Amino acid sequence: MPIGIIGAGAIGQALALRLLAAGRQVLISNSRGPDTLHELAHALGAGLKPASVPESAAEDIVILAVPWRRLPAAVAATGVADWGGRIVIDTTNPLGPPDFKVADLGGRTSSEVVADLVPGARLVKAFNTLTPAVLGADPRTPAGRRVIFLSGDDAGANTRITRLIQHLGWAAIDLGPLAAGGRLQQFPGGPLPTLNLILQT
Ligand SMILES: NC(=O)c1ccc[n+]([C@@H]2O[C@H](COP(=O)([O-])OP(=O)(O)OC[C@H]3O[C@@H](n4cnc5c(N)ncnc54)[C@H](OP(=O)(O)O)[C@@H]3O)[C@@H](O)[C@H]2O)c1
């Protein structure tokens, strides 16, 4: 089953690369439309299909990889009113262009705020702690597997994304619910961002 990615920039491309390397199909979209993504598809391979935002959002697992301030518009462009239990992976951090000011989250974690934008979705925060270059690199190293953290309020969704992360070659560490685990992953503020950990296997 293909995976939808909304956002075809540094993080969206890094994840697409890993998914394609594991033989998964990817429907990737941006704000400018699929015609602007043919060059990327040509570069990354046949498993990458340029898509509209609604097409990416129709998949069972949908990855959000857009800048924080663009999230409301990107989610609105999906046209989805009720995500019906599908999994949305939030890779975002609560700052970004144009001014890189940290958003006022009212004491909540950023992924709790994102969860409100996607009603009915089982939201999992993942892939937000590494740079695009590290995220896109082969996670199997001579010393062991690179670690990806995840958190989310639905245990079943966390298990499913843990398996996906492992299938792609990483070691997965489930930090539990968003309020606690998301805070550890959060950038800025949490202790985990930029940690490039290798789990000896
Ligand atoms: N870069 C990092 O080091 C890093 C690390 C961890 C997490 N993150 C987080 O990952 C997210 C993505 O960052 P990035 O560095 O990949 O950003 P990026 O390179 O600037 O790419 C952003 C992508 O989002 C798309 N986009 C923007 N508005 C959209 C909309 N309304 N509908 C659909 N697509 C839209 C852009 O498409 P267009 O060009 O067509 O507008 C572009 O493809 C951010 O939230 C960031 O905080 C980044």
Question: What does this protein structure show overall?
Answer:
The two termini are 29 Å apart. The protein has 201 residues and is of the alpha/beta class. Strands 1, 2, 3, 4, 5, 6, 7, 8, 9 and 10 form a 10-stranded mixed β-sheet that branches. The protein has helices at residues 10-21, 38-44, 53-57, 71-78, 110-117, 132-136, 155-167, 178-185; strands at residues 3-6, 26-29, 48-50, 61-64, 87-90, 122-126, 140-141, 144-152, 171-174, 198-199. The protein has a single domain (3-199), classed as Rossmann fold (3-Layer(aba) Sandwich). Bound molecules: NADP nicotinamide-adenine-dinucleotide phosphate. NADP nicotinamide-adenine-dinucleotide phosphate is lined by residues 6-12, 29-32, 53, 65-68, 70, 73-74, 77, 91-93, 96, 128, 131-132.
What features would you highlight for this structure?
201 residues; alpha/beta; Rossmann fold; 10 strands; binds NADP nicotinamide-adenine-dinucleotide phosphate
On the 0 to 100 scale, the average pLDDT is 97
- Name the beta content range: 15-25%
Poorly predicted residue ranges? none
Number of E strands: 10
H-E string: EHEHEHEHEHEHEEHEHE
Individual helix count: 8
**Largest sheet features:** 10 strands, mixed
| Rg over alpha carbons | 16 Å
Q: The CATH topology is what? A: Rossmann fold
Shape by Cα distribution: globular
Domains counted in the coordinates: how many?
1
**Which class in CATH terms?**
Alpha Beta
Give helix % range: 25-40%
Distinct compounds present: NADP nicotinamide-adenine-dinucleotide phosphate
**The CATH fourth-level homologous superfamily:** NAD(P)-binding Rossmann-like Domain
